[in-house]
Automatic annotation (TrEMBL):
A GO molecular-function annotation: phosphorelay sensor kinase activity
Domain Histidine kinase: 246-447
Gene Ontology cellular component annotations, sorted alphabetically: plasma membrane
CDD domains: HisKA (cd00082)
Name recorded for this polypeptide: histidine kinase
Organism lineage string: Bacteria, Pseudomonadati, Pseudomonadota, Alphaproteobacteria, Rhodobacterales
Catalytic activity line of the entry: ATP + protein L-histidine = ADP + protein N-phospho-L-histidine
Domain of life of the native organism: Bacteria
Compartments where located: Membrane
Enzyme class per UniProt: transferase
């Protein structure tokens, strides 16, 4: 989770969604407050007009106030709804104020002016108040009137709390839906990376030679870089292989010359010196052959796989043409169509070494079987010869070790087979079958 791009994007997306929803809820609360205040102000203006309608002007006389019912809330003491009228020197107010008087504008107000105020109520609560100044009558008999209509702001706060209580479930539901959408978005957006991983796995299994460019534009650059690295690696390995081959071929002529000198020395009767030169030349030849085999194994990796059954049939056909192979009863049981994830040349060399080794040590029969076990191909080669001493079983794959009693082996055959198996991510197992030696080469199955 710590190094996961998916979870990083999910956490970042979740954080952005939560911040956006919080800001949205805060913004909606502010807009709701403003909307409610506008409605409250409009309501206060309407109620101020209703209070003004209670004033009854009289020609050449002081205006009087009619007792016109406005709202039952104005009759309930400390209800949070109040009105107050200053008509000349007379002050009238709603029953809801009881014995409390709202502070009013000092001095002669300008007729026709209005303003919104914030006042303290009978209990010290904040009030939203609307003040309107009028001039009742004409001329010198005109009487100034100051109307004050107020509303307890706690009702506005209560309305805001109710709005938020109704809003939070919808905000929460929206948040869950947005998180689910973010998860889907991240999953779909990262799917090309899974495609890259699948193709890299196909590279390892030999199903594809390269990743290719038929991918989304955002990952094409990555795929191209990987393909270029693979091309550069193959180029360098190819150069290394050719250098090793050139070196090996360059040493063959001097080695052959040394062997010729050894023969001349032996003809002169200097057998000890001839044996020393031949042993040194043989050791050098084993090293050269080993490096040639290693170079080929490391550079010619599998791309499409190989069929062990077909290769065994071809190798047996070649071996039966030799004098020793013609005397062997070859028992081959290989299911056709089974493919191992290995280069065909590498498998040919490994099977050739195993079959030739079995042929040299067999009395009459060599068995070769190919079968599939789960996702692996198991190749078993067995002879009916004397087998190998148990103490030497673990040493057979050591380079330079030969148990051939005739001394014809160079001691690199099984070592090369082991190297081939290791390079192909396979296993090599040997045991005495009594009679004979049984060698099992297990390789990954090709897709």
């Amino acid at each position: 989770m710590k190094g996961s791009i998916r979870w990083r994007m999910m956490l970042a997306g979740a954080g952005a969604i939560l911040v956006a929803l919080a800001l949205s809820a805060f913004g909606l609360a502010i807009l709701f407050d403003r909307h409610v205040e506008r409605i409250a102000q409009a309501d206060l203006r309407s109620r101020a007009i209703a209070v003004a309608a209670m004033i009854e002007p009289r020609p050449n006389a002081t205006p009087t106030v009619r007792n016109v019912p406005l709202d039952p809330l104005y009759e309930q003491i400390f209800s949070g709804h109040y009105w107050q009228l200053q008509l000349g020197s007379e002050t009238l107010q709603s029953r809801s104020l009881w014995d409390f008087t709202l502070p009013m504008f000092k001095g002669p107000p300008a007729p026709g002016t209005t303003r919104m105020l914030t006042l303290s109520g009978p209990k010290g609560e904040p009030l939203m108040a609307y003040e309107q100044n009028l001039l009742i009558g004409d001329g010198d008999t005109a009487v100034p009137a100051q109307i004050l209509v107020a509303l307890d702001r706690s009702e506005l706060a209560m309305a805001r709390r109710g709005f938020m209580a109704d809003l939070l479930p919808y905000i929460s539901t929206l948040g869950v839906l947005l998180l689910a959408a973010s998860f889907v978005q991240v999953t779909v957006g990262l799917r090309p990376l899974a495609q890259v991983a699948a193709r890299v796995a196909q590279l390892g299994s030999g199903q594809r030679p390269r990743i290719g460019n038929d991918m989304p534009a955002e990952v094409v650059a990555l795929a191209t870089q990987i393909d270029q690295l693979l091309d550069a690696r193959d180029h360098e390995l190819s150069r290394a292989r050719h250098r090793a081959a050139d070196l090996a071929h360059g040493l063959k002529t001097p080695l052959q010359a040394l062997l010729g000198d050894a023969r001349q020395l032996r003809d002169r009767g200097e057998d000890e010196l001839a044996d020393s030169i031949e042993n040194i030349a043989a050791a050098m030849r084993r090293h050269v052959d080993r490096e040639l085999a290693r170079a080929r194994i490391q550079t010619e990796r599998a791309s499409t796989g190989a069929e062990p059954a077909t290769l065994i049939a071809k190798l047996v056909e070649v071996l039966t043409r030799t004098p020793l192979g013609a005397m062997i009863d070859w028992q081959v049981k290989a299911a056709p169509g089974l493919r191992a994830r290995i280069d065909a040349d590498d498998l040919t060399e490994a099977l050739g070494a195993l079959l030739e080794n079995a042929m040299r040590h067999a009395n009459e029969t060599v068995w070769a079987t190919v079968e599939r076990a789960a996702d692996q191909i198991r190749i078993t080669i067995r002879d009916d010869g004397p087998g190998v001493p148990e103490a030497d079983l673990t040493r057979l794959t050591q380079r330079g070790l030969s148990l051939d009693p005739d001394g014809e082996g160079q001691g690199i055959g099984l070592a090369v087979v082991a190297a081939v198996a290791d390079a192909a991510q396979g296993r090599l197992h040997m045991r005495n079958a009594k009679p004979g030696l049984e060698v099992t080469l297990t390789l990954p199955a090709a897709a």
